[in-house]
Write a structure and sequence with these properties.
heterodimer, A: 53 residues, mainly alpha, 2 helices, 0% strand, rod-shaped, B: 248 residues, 77% helix
């Protein structure tokens, strides 16, 4: 428990590491999500075009 | 070598290569970050002045370094796009902006959290390092807002590249602010001799490498998306998406 307390600085240290984790996960997730969305949009448009042809 | 660069700048080639390359950056990056975080939190001895609060350095410095590196990539790619009109370079610039903004925000937050126990304040409006880093965040926001406000991609590329180039001045100020002016923020630490013991420095260098690799993987994924969007009306995208195997 002493190791986790970080000599009374625990709240500061752990909040920084937690925030880093949140931002890194968020950036990775956003990048993946946007790729999926763009890919799906193009796919839908191309399939609609193909059906029309 | 020149031929290889030329090939890489071709959107379909880049799209294929980046899909293979991204996991080779992300996985070692995550392993290095996990190892350095464990070292930084539990193995490295505490600082004699700052105590355990100094452990924030292992996330604050890499995020601050990436905030500047992402901007330099954005501005350099924009300049290459303006001068040599390489299509891919504008996609690189557009892809670097949101990642750079994320790491700038992280650097500001971790710096502020670190500042409270060390300086007795969350924020100091007169501090040159803090203010120039905040301006860097606004530059990223301005860059992204400018891009999204112009519908024509070519015009958006040109205008945003000019803005990115002008903003380089601020990156120089962020970097040298602690040397030029009196600041609450400590001076150069990582690459200056005698400022940090090797036991503390090595995990930090590992963390910097891990963050860089992860940034590279994120950037590749975002560039792929940009390339796909910009090339959405081309034959290769049509063939790739409508092929039975797909190409996500």
């Amino acid at each position: 428990m002493d190791g986790l307390a970080m000599g009374d600085y625990g709240a500061y240290v752990w909040s920084c590491y937690a925030l880093t984790l949140v931002i890194v996960v968020f950036l990775s997730w956003r990048a993946r999500l946007r790729h999926k969305r763009v890919y799906r949009d193009i796919e839908v448009r191309l399939k609609a075009l193909e059906d029309r042809e | 070598m020149w031929k290889w660069f030329h090939q890489l700048a071709s959107p379909p080639h880049f799209y294929r290569i980046s899909a293979i390359l991204a996991p080779w950056l992300a996985v070692p990056g995550l392993i290095l970050i996990a190892y350095a975080a464990w070292q930084g939190l539990f193995v490295v001895p505490m600082d004699y002045q700052q105590g355990d609060a100094f452990r924030i350095i292992y996330v604050h410095v890499p995020s601050a370094y990436l905030s500047m590196m992402a901007y330099m990539i954005m501005a350099t790619s924009g300049a290459i796009g303006l001068i040599w009109r390489i299509k891919l370079s504008h996609a690189v610039a557009a892809a670097a902006a949101p990642i750079g903004a994320g790491f700038t925000f992280l650097a500001l937050c971790t710096g502020s959290i670190w500042g409270k126990p060390m300086w007795g304040t969350w924020w100091e409006w007169g501090d040159p390092r803090m203010m120039s880093e905040l301006i860097l965040l606004f530059l990223y926001f301005g860059y992204m807002a400018l891009r999204s406000s112009i519908d024509d991609t070519t015009k958006a590329d040109k205008a945003s590249a000019v803005l990115a180039l002008v903003g380089i001045v601020n990156v120089v100020i962020v970097h040298f602010s602690v040397e030029w002016w009196s600041s609450l923020h400590q001076g150069q630490t990582v690459f200056k001799k005698g400022t940090m013991d090797a036991d503390m420095r090595i995990p930090l260098l590992i963390m910097l490498l891990g963050f860089t690799l992860l940034f590279g993987a994120m950037l590749l994924r975002r560039i792929r998306t940009e390339v796909l969007f910009r090339e959405r009306r081309t034959k290769w995208v049509r063939e790739m998406i409508l092929s039975p195997e797909g190409g996500a």
